[in-house]
Write a structure and sequence with these properties.
mainly alpha; 2 strands; disordered N terminus
Length: about 160
């Protein structure tokens, strides 16, 4: 079987003017597969060598891939830890600032409550004093009323006897 490759094709419609070359051997079908003879030793060595070369490329590529992935995973882990450390530190700073603001507001509230309690205490003392004075006046009035009732009763008893 002849496989041919044409060059430029027929010139001016003349089929004999087309150049024809014979196809290289690797395009021709192999008849060796139809024979029962084992391939020659050189072919086996070549195939083994090519298989070894292919596996070398495969393992070499896998090694380079593993190296790249390993290096970048270590780098990524370090960068992640660095970022997490920065996030935690910023969180600590923000939390500290928040606690300081809350502490100052609580101290301000404590001062205002203390002032309010002092005013309430002074008003309660004033109310106590006024109530004490009122109770003393009521007690004097009750003593006076008791004395008058006693006098009236004694006068009534004298008149009745």
């Amino acid at each position: 079987m002849e496989l041919g490759c044409t060059g430029l094709g027929p010139v001016n419609g003349n089929p004999s003017s087309a150049t024809t070359r014979e196809a290289p051997d690797y395009y021709k079908p192999s008849l060796k597969a139809e024979t029962s003879e084992p391939p020659p030793l050189s072919t086996l060595r070549y195939n083994a060598f090519m298989s070894l070369v292919i596996w070398t490329y495969i393992f070499g590529g896998a090694t380079i891939f593993a190296l790249v992935v390993g290096v970048f995973s270590v780098w990524n882990g370090r960068m992640t830890r660095r970022e997490l450390r920065e996030v935690i530190e910023q969180g600590n700073i923000r939390t500290h600032a928040l606690l300081e603001r809350m502490n100052s507001r609580m101290e301000e509230t404590d001062r205002s409550h203390t002032a309010l309690l002092e005013r309430m205490n002074s008003r309660m003392e004033e109310t106590d004093r006024s109530h004490t004075a009122l109770l003393e006046r009521i007690a004097l009035h009750m003593q006076e009323m008791d004395r008058r009732h006693t006098e009236l009763l004694s006068q009534l008893l004298k008149q009745a006897s």
